[in-house]
Structure formats: structure tokens, C-alpha cells
Write a structure and sequence with these properties.
The protein has helices at about 55-65, 155-170, 185-195, 205-215, 270-275, 290-300, 315-320, 340-355, 355-359; strands spanning about 10-15, 15-20, 25, 35, 50-55, 70-75, 85, 90-95, 105-110, 110-115, 140-145, 175, 200, 225, 240-245, 260-265, 280-285, 305-310, 325-330. By secondary structure, it is an alpha/beta fold. It is globular and about 75 Å long. This is DNA ligase-associated DEXH box helicase.
């Protein structure tokens, strides 16, 4: 008897992907009785589950962002490559290369294998374990940047552009918008690799995740909070680097900086109109998601005859896959926010908690 097709035991529900024989959800849209969480970003790691399973890093991130006990009433940490069996389903977490602790969820049942990749990238990142392709029958993938126009340059190249701008405008601060989880720490690591050994200044919303990364052995170097000017109307940090939430440049907090060059680190900065509309002076194309080429290469590597697309540019990807003899299916999951808006909202909420720094 041939193995069962994954769509006979993995269902799309209003809560998201549900594994019937294991009786658990993967990245459910709201609190669920049993959940496996791929990574700590807010559109995947929702609060108030009954039982939650994730990597130790993801559980720590969820606790830091949601509060003690909000991730789930019971929590099970599962290391990479340490399979367990849940209701007859073999579950293994494999690195996704997205952020610290991010995982692909590998599910095997009665000879059938499905890989739910979560969010992932293929570019080098010194702050998290790299993506590992896993051969499977069905590959569930994001499609955030699934258009041929999205081809991300090497992140190190974009960091060099940033440092060249700092050298060119020593009288100005450089304010770099980046998500508090993942992007901020990756930029810091890339800046250190590029030779920036001076302090890096952080908006209050960025500080807790940097401290968490350091607790997990990811060195950040010297980080400092943005100081207040000594005199009313004065400015600070000329020639320095400041990392903050992407919308911080519109906050009165930014007025303390010396004539800041506004930059944003995002894959969306490939779209010039988007950067221009936001008034971004220095767009940096640095993404924690796969671009078009890496997306197609990853699908080819796993060799799945069928690909399910969870969110993003489903139509373009499914059309491209059809030309390669791969069946594509758009899952149309509800509640999968564009990460940019979801994470920016959480960053602003975190900033409000640290109001004394954001004032």
C-alpha cells in the first residue's frame, strides 16, 4: 500500500495547519490546545496555547515578548534533530535560518513526509543556524518575495554601503530601522564582521532581544541606549549608528539625534517607490526571507513533487512551479500578516513599555 498523501492527514482549518493523527496545530492563528511554533515572530508565535512545543530559543523569545506563562500552560523545548513521536507522528525540528531558534517542522506518518518550513532564508547569518533542506513529499513554503524582481544582494554589501555613508557624513547620526527580533541582531553581527568596533546605540525597543541573543551565546559587542542631550534643543550621536524600530524616525524621540540619515533594512527596500513614500534616505536591501532565486533553488533541493504556499505571492510562484513540473497549491491561510506590519506593531508596543527611553 502506498503512503498516504499528506492532504489526508494535514488539514487547512480557520486556525491554520492541523495535523489530524497528532492532534496539533502548526503556528496556529490563535491560542490552540496543542501547538508547534516555528519561530518567535508575532505572526507565527501567538499567545495562550494549552501545550506548546518549540526550540528552546523560540520558547525563550515567546516568554520575553508575551510574558511569563503566556506562550502556553505547558511548554516543551525540542532541540534541532531530536525527533519525538506525537500521536504516532514523528516530529523533528530542523534549522530554518530565519532568526534565532527558527525551525522547519518535519512531520512523518506512515511513510509520508511533509516539511512546514515556516519563514526561512538562505543567505549567511552569523546569529542563527542555517537552513537545511529536507527531502519530502510536500514542502510548505512562504512566498513573501516570490516575484522575479526580488533578488537580494549580499547583506554584507549593504552593510558596507551603510558604513560608507557614515564615513561620508560624520556630522550626522545614522538611524537604521529594523525589526527588534532577528534583523537588529543580524545587522549588529554584520557590522562587527565589517570592522565596526565602536558602540552601537539602541532604541529601547531593541534592547531586550539583544540581551536574549547574548544569553544564547551570540556576541553583540558594546551596545548602549541612546542618551538624552545635555541641553534642551541639543542633539547627540553625530557619526554614530542607531538601530530602532522601522517607524522610529517619525517619533519625537528621533529629534535628539544629530540630523539623522534615515535608513531602513528590509527586502521591501528593493521597491524604490516604497522607500521613497516612506522618506527613506538610505534604503538597505537586507531581508530575513528567501528571494525569488533562493526560493526556487530551495524547492528544487527538497525535491517535493508538491508545494503548498502559505502566504505572499502565491500566484507567481505556483505558475513558475508548474513550468518545472511541480504541483503548487495556495493555502490562503487567514491571519498571516505581512511580517513588516506585524513586527512593527509589536516593536512599537515594546517601545511604549520602555517609555522613559522613547520619550
Amino acid at each position: 500500500m502506498p503512503p498516504p498523501h499528506p492532504d489526508t492527514w494535514i488539514r487547512v482549518t480557520p486556525q491554520g495547519l492541523y495535523c489530524e493523527p497528532g492532534d496539533f496545530f502548526i503556528d496556529p492563528m490563535a491560542g490552540a490546545p496543542r501547538a508547534i511554533i516555528s519561530h518567535g515572530h508575532s505572526d507565527h508565535a501567538r499567545p495562550d496555547h494549552g501545550a506548546v512545543l518549540a526550540t528552546p530559543e523560540t520558547l525563550a523569545i515567546m516568554t520575553a515578548r508575551l510574558g511569563e506563562g503566556r506562550a502556553g500552560r505547558s511548554q516543551q523545548a525540542l532541540a534541532y534533530h531530536a525527533p519525538i513521536t506525537v500521536g504516532g507522528v514523528r516530529v523533528t525540528l530542523v534549522p530554518a535560518g530565519h532568526v534565532l531558534g527558527s525551525a522547519q517542522v518535519v512531520l512523518e506518518w506512515q511513510g509520508s513526509r511533509i516539511v512546514v518550513s515556516g519563514d526561512y532564508k538562505r543567505q549567511p547569518d552569523p546569529t542563527c543556524a542555517p537552513f537545511e533542506p529536507v527531502p519530502c513529499d510536500v514542502f510548505v513554503t512562504e512566498a513573501t518575495f516570490a516575484l522575479p524582481v526580488f533578488r537580494h544582494p549580499p547583506a554584507a554589501q549593504e552593510v558596507r554601503r551603510l558604513l560608507e555613508s557614515v564615513a561620508l557624513f560624520p556630522e550626522r547620526a545614522h538611524l537604521v530601522g529594523c525589526y527588534a527580533l532577528g534583523k537588529c541582531q543580524r545587522l549588529i553581527a554584520l557590522l562587527r564582521e565589517a570592522g565596526w568596533d565602536r558602540p552601537i546605540y539602541l532604541h529601547g525597543a531593541q534592547q531586550s532581544m539583544c540581551a536574549l541573543y547574548e544569553r544564547f551565546g551570540i556576541p553583540m559587542g558594546e551596545l548602549r541606549p541612546v542618551p538624552r542631550p545635555e541641553k534642551r534643543g541639543a542633539t547627540v550621536l553625530a557619526g554614530e549608528l542607531v538601530l530602532a524600530p522601522p517607524s522610529a524616525e517619525a517619533n519625537p524621540w528621533a529629534r535628539r539625534l544629530a540630523d539623522p540619515v534615515t535608513a531602513v533594512a528590509s527586502g521591501w527596500m528593493r521597491v524604490r517607490q516604497r522607500a521613497k513614500a516612506r522618506g527613506v534616505e538610505l534604503p538597505l536591501i537586507v531581508s530575513d526571507h528567501v528571494d525569488w532565486d533562493d526560493l526556487l533553488a530551495s524547492i528544487a533541493e527538497v525535491g517535493a513533487p508538491e508545494v503548498w504556499v502559505t502566504h505572499g505571492r502565491e500566484e507567481a510562484l505556483i505558475h513558475a512551479l508548474a513550468g518545472r513540473g511541480v504541483r503548487g497549491r495556495a493555502l490562503h491561510l487567514l491571519g498571516r500578516e505581512e511580517e513588516e506590519s506585524g513586527e512593527a506593531a509589536l516593536d512599537l508596543a515594546s517601545a511604549a513599555v520602555g517609555a522613559e527611553d522613547a520619550a
